[in-house]
Amino acid sequence: MPSPHDPHTLLIADLKDGAENSFQLKPDSTSCAQIADHLGILALRKVLFKGTLTPQGKRGWRLKAQVGATVQQACVVTLDPVNTRLDETVILNYSSDLNDQVAEIDIEMQGDTTQELLTREINLIEVLTEAISLALPTYPKSAKVIVGDASFTEPGKTPMSDEDAKPFAGLAALKTSLAGQD
Q1: Which ranges in the chain belong to alpha helices (H)?
Q2: Residue 173 maps to a domain
Q3: Of 28, 92, 93, 94, whose Cβ has the fewest other Cβ atoms within 10 Å?
Q4: Is residue 158 part of a domain?
């Protein structure tokens, strides 16, 4: 149901009011490269964005979709390429009842990230890009990276352990020393 002038855009006026409207988007390699560049990742492949838009009330639409994609990011330790498969559900509620300024403030305060202002069209590439951005691993690590304990201290002193850094570690040591005095 994409618009004839832009295959990545759904025009609200073209949607069926009383039924579920299906869509499927498989971005070409150029679009994938643009999204990857925008997100600052190495590559984006095997992308499928498939879902429905369903009327919600008198003046709204509910988008429910699945995003599947393979992303390639640089490892935070070695900078080697790291591939991750993303499979995410996207749910957005579009409403024309929202006032531009008030909606942004209310939505941020309520923490509801599914509310969107309904305009004349829905750009599926923008929705897809945001969904991928939110699903990206924050600290991708190569399989070669072995995370171990690191300890640093002055020569001749005992390094502080993770156990020592816990808030009640000092109290436990005090309790043990007091128990030994009995």
Answers
A1: 29-39, 100-110, 124-135, 169-181
A2: no
A3: 28
A4: no
Name the burial class of residue 51, with classes exposed (0-12), middle (13-18) and buried (19+) by CB atoms within 10 angstroms of its CB. buried
pLDDT tens for residues 73-93? Answer: 999 888 999 999 999 999 999
> Considering only CA atoms, which of 44, 22, 53 is closest in space to residue 129?
44
Strand ranges across the sheet with 60-74: 21-25, 43-56, 60-74, 81-95, 115-117
Would you state the structure tokens that stand for residue 12, as one six-digit string? 């609200």
Residue 31: which region, alpha, beta or left (left: phi > 0; alpha: psi -120 to 50)? alpha
Nearest CA among 148, 145, 149, 146 for reference residue 81: 145
pLDDT of residue 65: 96
CA distance 149 to 127: 40
Q: What's the domain count of the chain?
A: 1
Please give the residue range of the domain that contains residue 55: 9-135
Identify which of 51, 65, 61, 49 has the alpha carbon closest to the alpha carbon of residue 14. 61
pLDDT 10s digits, 146-176: 766 666 678 888 777 666 667 676 677 777 7
75 domain residue, yes or no? yes
